[in-house]
Structure formats: structure tokens, C-alpha cells
Amino acid sequence: MRRELDVTKHDLARAHVDSTQLKERCKMLEKTLKETRELLRTREAEIEKLRRERDRDRAMAERRRSDMHGHGNHMLVHDDRTWRTPSPSRNSSASASTSTSTSMSTSSAATGLSASQEEDRARFRSAETYMTRIDSWSGAQVLQAVHDINSEILQFSAAATEMCNFLPAPASPSNPKLAQVLQDTTARIGPNMTRILASREHSQEPLLVQLALQGCVSLCIARALNSFCIGFPSKSDAVLAQIYNSMRITEPQPTSAKWRALTHQHIHSIYPTLTEYSVNELADTILRWCTDIFLLANCQSFSPPSTAQSPSLYLDQIRRISRSVMRLASVTREEIMSTSFEVTIADPSGSFAAGEMVDAFGDYGESHGKVLATMELGLRCITRVMGSGESMLEPRLLLQPKVVLESVLEVLDR
Q1: How far apart are alpha carbons 345 and 67 in whole angstroms?
Q2: Helix (H, G, I), strand (E, B), or coil: what is residue 205?
Q3: Residue 392 in 3-state DSSP?
Q4: I need a labelling partner for 48 at 20 to 30 A (CA). Which of 120, 315, 344, 386 fits?
Q5: Dihedral, CA atoms, 222, 223, 227, 229, nearest 10 degrees?
Q6: Which long-range contacts (CB under 8 A, 24 or more apart) does 258-263 make?
Q7: pTM above 0.70, yes or no
Q8: Helix or strand or coil: residue 46?
Q9: How far apart are the first and last CA of the chain?
Q10: Where do the segments described as Disordered lie (predicted)?
Q11: pLDDT tens string 19-61
């Protein structure tokens, strides 16, 4: 009865949180719609300005061409009067020479003018295409995509945990393989959650295992999405990320965004199999990390001789999550010019910071202790803006990451 009551309280708390998130999402949608309208008005004004400049340049070019033709005709008349003599042969020869020279001069000027006009037209077409490009996705759509990924992570973690049977005694650290798993997991998700997983019994209440899985998958996805190009060699990716960060600070927002989009697009054009490779690589990494979580939690399904259950049963679901991650990466890097989006997580073993993260179990008691894991990814956007006469990067947190704190142990032990 007590456990059912706790489950009911947990469901009520989740429903309350979901309701709050829906309200916040509505506000965010309204704000995004307003910003989009303002952006469209700004773009339309810039386009109209470019059109006026184009018309002015064309008018000036036409005026130069007319002046050039008029000047050429005047030269012919003037030369004919100056060099007119009683000798017909000399007159004819001089007129022919002058006419040929003037014609060549006029043709050369017209050719130069034509090349200049073509260059102006090409420059305008490039600028027009550049300035009129509108984001393919809105901020609300990106936010919804992050919510969907969080939902898929939750479904996978809950289903995988429910299918496993845990031994009542904690796993023995004397096993060399387990010692290596303990070291690897500590480096990934931090020492606090790793220690709790390895020392506590999960046969009666495996909720901590589910939370650890959510934190593990969220961390893996965040690391992938915060790279410049998922699946690209780490050294090359680090160089590209450094170049982009420098451009984002020093160049206008459209310039750095355009470079990011073109670079990311051409990487995938040069390596057409990179997307599929990245999906498989990310899925394999998530699977390997989750397997280590179950080993630390002393899951019977992964201990010899029983191998009845395995996270590989959920490989299709993990690959679906990986494809969603790749789609989000493609959209945020290639199809959004007005800003740059980044997923956020809390620092494992860091301190709780109200306003920057949300305690998933805050409704059950006071939030305190270190961060154990990030259950749900957050989202922020970073835009280069002008302020006080100089440009600066303006970060905005659109979705706070949801975390689990050490205080959750008090809730579970009640």
C-alpha cells in the first residue's frame, strides 16, 4: 500500500510537472511567434533595402552607358570637323582611322561596363539569397524535438529496467571485469551515482537503475550533439568547432551560421555514409554504457549463466533514438540561421543551481546534495547581438535540464 501510495504521489507530481511544462511551452510558443514575426519584418526591410540599392545601381549603370554613347558620337563629329582638308583621300583616311579608334574605345568601355553589371547582378543575387533565407524550423519545433528525445529516453530506460531481475546482494568489486566497469562508469557519469549503483540493493526498488540509465543516455546524447559534426574524427571536429566558435564571436550572426551550415552540409556530401555510421556508432555507445550500468547494479540477466535479457533487445529502440538525435543535429546546424541551439545537462557531481536546472523529486522534499544525473536534456539558444556599442553572445535557457540529486535517497528510504 505504501509503495502504491508513493507511485500515486509520483504520478501526481509528474502530472503537475507536465502541466507546468505545457504552460511554459505555450508561453514559449507565443514568444517564438512574436520573435519570428519581428525577424520576418526585419528581413523584409533588408530585402527592400537591397532592392532599392539594386535599382539605383541599375539606373546609374544605364546613365553611364548613355553618357558613354553620347560622348562617342560627339567625338566622331568633332574629329570630322578638325581633320577635314581639301584632299579627299586624306580626309577619308583620317575619318576612317578616327572612326575605328572611337569604335574600339566604345566597345571596350561597353564590355567593361557589361562585366561590371554582371558582377553587380551576381553579387545582388547572392546577397538576396543569403538575406531571404528563413529558418526551416522554429524554436518551438526544436524544443518539441528535445521533448520527444527525452520521452524516448524515458521509455527505453523504464522498459529495460522493468525487464531485468536484480540479485539481492550488491555486486562484488573483486571481479576484475567489474572493477574496470566501475572505473569506466565513474569517468562517464561521476563517482556519486556509480557508488550508489554498486553499493545499494535494487531487487526491491530498481528506480535508481532507471534514473542512472536516463542519465547515462542523456549524457551520451549531449556529448554527441555538442560536437560540430557527429561521427567526424575527433581532432578534425575539434578544429572545426574552434573555428566556428571564433567566427561566432567575431562575425555577424548570419555569417557564422552560413559558414556552419555550408561546412556541415559539405562534410556529409563528401562522406555520404557518415549519417548511417554515426547512427550505429551512437547506438553502440549507448548500448555499451547501459550494459555497464546493469552490471554495476547486479542485474541477474547479465550475470552468467543466465542471459535471458539484454539491452540488445532494445537495439532498435536505441537506434530510433540515435536517428532522432542525428535529425536534430542536421536541423540545428544546417537549417537555422537566426541563432544556434545547444542541448544542456547538469555537471555530474556538481551542485544544484535553482533557475538553471529542475529537481525531478523537488515536490517530495527539500532539494539538496550533489547532482547524481540528468534525467532529461535541457535546451538553450545562443545569439550574437549588439549591445553597448559592441557585439556579444546572448544565451537564453529555453528548457531547464531535469536532474536527480542525492536527496532522492531520502525519498526512496522513507
Answers
A1: 66
A2: coil
A3: strand
A4: 386
A5: -80
A6: 258/130, 258/337, 260/228, 260/333, 260/340, 261/333, 261/334, 261/335, 261/337
A7: no
A8: helix
A9: 13
A10: 51-120
A11: 776 776 677 677 667 767 777 777 777 777 777 877 777 777 7
